[in-house]
């Protein structure tokens, strides 16, 4: 059963087209990688699929809802890790997650467990601004899964995660539908069943595992 | 759906906690208003007769520029650290998020007023009374609502430092005129203080409601 259906997604920024007529279907529980060079439209596509941005044209249906109109209803079911971690540097890791628990309308019971799951227990009381880039990325991932979303949209989450980053991503992606943008073809092959390749804002096709043409 | 009141309070608490730990805004604003008063003190020939006429103008000038900095930083910091999008990606109402940001910015400005009002008394010899404090606090509420709305609007623009005063100052004029009048009356000039205060309350209600309604469209990209 499809959890996400995108039809003709197009995004213009002024006179520049960032994304052109992208069609996409993602099944429940599927892990899909989005590959492409810098400027190919990966971030634009992921921002639209996570409901962070509205497409200029095209239709997007997520979990049976019109994603451009029902964004707030969908947001407690979607977790999004953006390019930048988007944390509050003066607040500790725990305080960052506590704050987002309030915004998500959920209890704070799972904060400690989520920090432990992401390997941040020892850093729980340290201000986010004093964490390394990799640790900040882990905290951003912890925030994205705090409310146990069904759909996870990850924009290059592996960028600064370190050697055991793939294991964390595999654990986070387990039993969830995931759309993952990355430059790392090996990681895409390891974690995802299917790959969408973008070039200059256009889809140049999808491929199943081990059939990605560089 | 998340509770809007708890979201607004959480956003305000988060901003105030960050400010308490970094001390980025309030100390700088306090220094700024004291310097503005020192300059005004030397710039005008202040004596007991003209102080009540000049002091309200200096007070509102210092307050307006301090407010522009305080409200501008409220959303600029969120944009710089890319955290605004993370907040908006939650089911929390954009209006509640805006209300929390405006509340925190208003409290920071009140922190600056705690320095400004006694300093005004010190430099200009004008009285520091409850009616003056009430007028300034009431004006702060409406100014915070409008200031934060425009700060949110221009936060994603490169020339935001220039645009924010251009958009905000014209709409702050009612607060400056009526607030100035209330402070002048409280300092001994003729006129009706109650009428000025009632007008300030009317402006507060009007602009808080308008800013809250507009914030939904400004924040929800």
The overall pLDDT average of chain A reads 91
Mean pLDDT of chain B equals 91
* Total helical elements of chain B: 8
Shape of chain B: globular
- N-to-C order of helices and strands of chain B: HHHHHHHH
* Helical coverage of chain B, percent range: over 70%
Strand order of the largest sheet of chain A: 6-7-8-3-9-10
Give the N-to-C terminal Cα separation of chain B. 19 Å
User: What Rg of chain A do the Cα atoms give?
Assistant: 17 Å
Give the low-confidence spans of chain A.
none
Identify the notable features of this structure and list them briefly.
heterodimer; A: 214 residues; alpha/beta; six-stranded mixed beta sheet; four-stranded antiparallel beta sheet; 7 helices; 10 strands; 30% strand; B: 221 residues; mainly alpha; 8 helices; 83% helix
Q: Can you summarize this structure?
A:
The complex is a heterodimer of chains A (214) and B (221). Helices cover 28% and strands 30% of the residues of chain A. Chain A has 214 residues and is of the alpha/beta class.
Strand-helix topology:
The complex is a heterodimer of chains A (214) and B (221).
Chain A: E1 2-13, E2 16-27, E3 31-36, H1 42-49, E4 57-62, E5 65-66, H2 71-74, E6 78-81, H3 93-104, H4 111-117, H5 133-145, E7 151-155, H6 165-173, E8 177-181, H7 185-191, E9 194-199, E10 202-208
Parallel strand pairs in A: 3-8, 3-9, 6-7, 7-8
Antiparallel strand pairs in A: 1-2, 1-4, 4-5, 9-10
Chain B: H1 4-22, H2 26-43, H3 51-80, H4 83-88, H5 94-124, H6 130-154, H7 160-186, H8 193-219
Helix pairs in contact in B: 1-5, 2-3, 2-5, 3-5, 3-6, 3-7, 5-6, 5-8, 6-7, 6-8, 7-8
Characterise the protein shown here:
- The complex is a heterodimer of chains A (214) and B (221).
- By secondary structure, chain A is an alpha/beta fold.
- Chain A contains 7 helices and 10 strands.
- In chain A, the strands form 2 sheets. A 6-stranded mixed sheet of chain A has the order 6-7-8-3-9-10, sandwiched between helices. Chain A has a 4-stranded antiparallel sheet with strand order 2-1-4-5, covered by helices on one side.
- In chain A, strand 7, helix 6 and strand 8 (177-181) form a beta-alpha-beta unit.
- Chain A starts with a strand and ends in a 6-residue tail after the last strand.
- The mean pLDDT of chain A is 91.
- Chain B has 221 residues and is mostly helical.
- Chain B has 8 helices and no strands.
- Chain B has helices at 4-22, 26-43, 51-80, 83-88, 94-124, 130-154, 160-186, 193-219.
- The mean pLDDT of chain B is 91.
- The interface between A and B is medium-sized, with 31 and 27 residues.
């Amino acid at each position: 059963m499809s959890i996400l259906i995108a039809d003709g997604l197009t995004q213009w920024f002024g006179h520049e087209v960032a994304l052109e007529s992208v069609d996409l279907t993602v099944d429940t529980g599927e892990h899909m990688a989005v590959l492409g060079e810098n400027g190919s439209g990966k971030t634009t596509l992921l921002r639209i699929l996570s409901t962070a941005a509205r497409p200029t044209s095209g239709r997007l249906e997520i979990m049976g809802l019109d994603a451009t109109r029902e964004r707030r209803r969908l947001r407690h079911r979607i977790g999004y890790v953006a390019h930048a971690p988007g944390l509050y540097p003066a607040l500790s890791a725990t305080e960052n997650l506590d704050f987002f628990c309030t915004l998500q309308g959920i209890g704070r019971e799972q904060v400690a467990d989520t920090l432990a799951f992401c390997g941040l227990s020892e850093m729980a009381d340290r201000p986010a601004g004093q964490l390394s880039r990799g640790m900040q990325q882990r905290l951003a991932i912890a925030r994205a899964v705090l409310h146990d979303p069904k759909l996870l949209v990850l924009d290059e989450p592996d960028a600064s995660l370190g050697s055991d980053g793939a294991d964390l991503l595999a654990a986070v992606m387990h039993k969830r539908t995931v759309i993952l943008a990355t430059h790392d073809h090996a990681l895409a092959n390891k974690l995802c069943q299917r790959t969408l390749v973008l070039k200059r804002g256009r889809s140049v096709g999808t491929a199943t595992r081990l059939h990605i043409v560089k | 759906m998340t509770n809007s009141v708890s979201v607004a309070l959480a956003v305000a608490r988060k901003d105030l906690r960050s400010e308490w730990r970094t001390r980025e805004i309030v100390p700088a604003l306090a220094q700024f208003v004291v310097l503005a008063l020192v300059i005004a003190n030397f710039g005008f020939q202040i004596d007991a007769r003209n102080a009540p006429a000049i002091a309200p103008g200096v007070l509102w000038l210092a307050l307006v520029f301090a407010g522009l900095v305080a409200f501008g930083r409220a959303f600029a910091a969120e944009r710089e650290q890319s955290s605004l999008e993370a907040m908006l990606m939650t089911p929390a109402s954009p209006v509640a998020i805006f209300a929390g940001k405006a509340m925190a910015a208003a409290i920071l400005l009140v922190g600056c007023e705690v320095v400004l009002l006694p300093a005004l008394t010190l430099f200009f010899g004008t009285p520091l009374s409850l009616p003056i404090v009430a007028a300034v606090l009431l004006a702060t509420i409406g100014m915070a609502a409008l200031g934060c709305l425009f700060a949110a609007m221009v936060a994603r623009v490169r020339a935001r430092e220039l645009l924010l005063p251009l958009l905000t100052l014209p709409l702050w004029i009612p607060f400056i005129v009526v607030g100035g009048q209330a402070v002048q009356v409280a300092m001994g000039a003729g006129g009706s203080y109650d009428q000025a205060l009632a007008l300030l309350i009317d402006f507060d209600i009007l602009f808080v409601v308008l800013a809250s309604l507009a914030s939904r469209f400004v924040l929800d990209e």
